[in-house]
Design brief:
By secondary structure, this protein is of the alpha/beta class. The protein has two domains: about 180 residues, Periplasmic binding protein-like II (D-Maltodextrin-Binding Protein, domain 2, 3-Layer(aba) Sandwich), CATH 3.40.190.10; about 220 residues, D-Maltodextrin-Binding Protein, domain 2 (3-Layer(aba) Sandwich), CATH 3.40.190. The protein has 17 helices and 13 strands. α2 links the parallel β1 and β2. It has a six-stranded mixed β-sheet with strand order 2-1-3-11-4-12. It is found in: Cell envelope. Pfam families: SBP_bac_1. This is Extracellular solute-binding protein. Keywords: Signal, Transport.
Length: about 450
């Protein structure tokens, strides 16, 4: 699950203040010489990691793993509070969006001695967890890409085949065949489709494309696939860039077009979106939207919608001639204040090994970072009758796909704090995309400190 809450930004600021004043010097809660505490947020993955813990304990007599699972919003709030109070775990599941901030605050233990090799994992996953200082702070855990989920009954009723949906293209001028498909899938309360005369954009029954909100500063399941397939990048460098590029004319043309879908009535207005109860997946589940861009971590969720036959398609081809998707990857990190660093590092090494990753893959809830783990996941999904090729093909076909990472830079929380309201103003209040020039300047001023 990848939902960001602004409380995390405030909490991270509190963390910075507390570390400066000398707090967070105690050891991890529940730690001891024979116990390793481990936190994760995904309840669906808990059984898989409990199985890994059994295997680890068998190989390491005298070492026990204590796993705590917390919901996404509670997870980051309590983790940040833990760094302040000295009650953080020995090991925790880390997200790339927070990595830069935690690395800068020096609350992570270097993992250079684990022997993590880039070639042992899917492309880019290991390299993303190297800090500005050249040290490693995360061991690759899993990865995800984004695809287009769609209600097959709705697309069939609209006369759209799976082949057509997998061969859509877009551009910021007229939206291309992608926008035509989304318009045709949109139906107002009088039964008129979005591309028919008399369509009422103010009284829509079914939107062609679900909304996942404004997208903060990364737009993972919103606009990122369009911006990247137009040739844009978040920063001036792939990792640890010194300048964000939200003032790019290319980027702003993408954003103007993307949020313009809501103005045309093809996508819900921002007022209809709710981070807690009306996300893209719930809009599709309720029959209020025909399609949604969403991540691989949501595969089982969409597959479980009762009375809905949900399938997936590749992201559309962009102006560059390539398709694009963010390829995000989680990692396991050791806290610097851990009382059991030796045991913690052993556990992280085990988590990053094929032994554990093949076990996790076998549960069919996530794509593990190693190639063997990924293969195990694909096989597990296949047994469930789920085709996951829309998510795995972008990783295998580098000729036709561009995969890219969440922006890796310092002060990521500050970037999010500034970009979240800026994007919502454009989406919900009709503010011009040129307003991003000033926001970008503010972010880069902070980044230059």
């Amino acid at each position: 699950m990848r939902i960001r809450l602004r409380t995390l930004v405030a909490a991270t600021g509190a963390l910075a203040l507390s570390l400066v004043s000398g707090c967070a010097q105690q050891g991890a809660a529940g730690s001891s010489a024979n116990t390793v505490t481990y936190w994760l947020w995904d309840a669906n993955q808990l059984p898989a990691y409990q199985a890994c813990a059994k295997g680890f304990e068998k190989e390491n007599p005298g070492l026990n793993v204590k796993i705590t699972q917390l919901g996404w919003s509670d997870y980051w709030t309590k983790l940040t509070a833990g760094f302040i109070a000295g009650t953080q775990p020995d090991v925790f599941t880390d997200h790339i969006q927070n990595f830069g901030q935690y690395a800068d605050l020096k609350v992570l233990e270097p993992l250079d001695d684990l022997g993590i090799e880039n070639a042992d994992y899917q492309p880019g996953l290991a390299a993303n967890w190297i800090g500005k200082d050249g040290h490693r702070y995360g061991a690759p855990k899993d990865w995800d890409t984004v695809a287009l989920f769609y209600n097959s009954k709705m697309t069939k009723d609209a006369g759209l085949t799976a082949g057509q949906l997998n061969n859509l293209a877009w551009n910021p001028e007229d939206g291309g065949t992608f926008e035509k498909a989304i318009a045709h899938l949109t139906i107002d309360r009088n039964g008129k489709r979005g591309d028919e005369p008399g369509f009422d954009k103010n009284n829509v029954k079914v939107y062609g494309l679900a909304s996942n909100g404004g997208g903060f500063g990364d737009g993972q399941t919103q606009w990122s696939t369009f911006a990247a397939s137009a040739g844009w990048s978040y920063l001036d460098k792939p990792r640890w860039g010194t300048k964000y590029q939200y003032d790019s004319k290319t980027f702003q043309s993408v954003i103007k077009w993307y949020f313009g879908l809501a103005k045309k009535g093809y996508m819900p207005p921002l007022s209809d979106y709710n981070v807690q109860s009306n996300q893209a997946n719930t809009q599709v589940a309720a029959g209020k939207a025909a399609t949604a861009f969403d991540g691989a971590w949501m595969i089982s969720t969409y597959a479980g919608f009762k009375g809905r036959d949900i399938e997936t398609a590749l992201t559309p081809v962009g102006p560059t001639g390539k398709r694009a998707t963010m390829m995000n990857g989680l990692a396991d990190s050791v806290t610097k204040a851990s009382k059991n660093k030796e045991g913690a590092k052993k556990w992280v090494a085990y988590l990053a090994s094929d032994k554990c990753q093949k076990v996790v893959g076998g549960y069919g809830v996530v794509f593990p970072a190693t190639k063997a783990g990924t293969e195990a996941a694909v096989a597990a999904y296949r047994k469930k009758g789920i085709d996951v090729s829309s998510f795995t093909e972008p990783v295998a076909d580098t000729k036709n796909f561009r995969t890219f990472s969440y922006p890796i830079a310092s002060y990521s929380a500050d970037m999010t704090a500034l970009m979240a309201p800026a994007m919502e103003d454009i989406y919900g209040n009709g503010k011009p995309v040129s307003s991003l020039d000033e926001t970008n300047e503010q972010i880069n001023l902070i980044l230059s400190q």
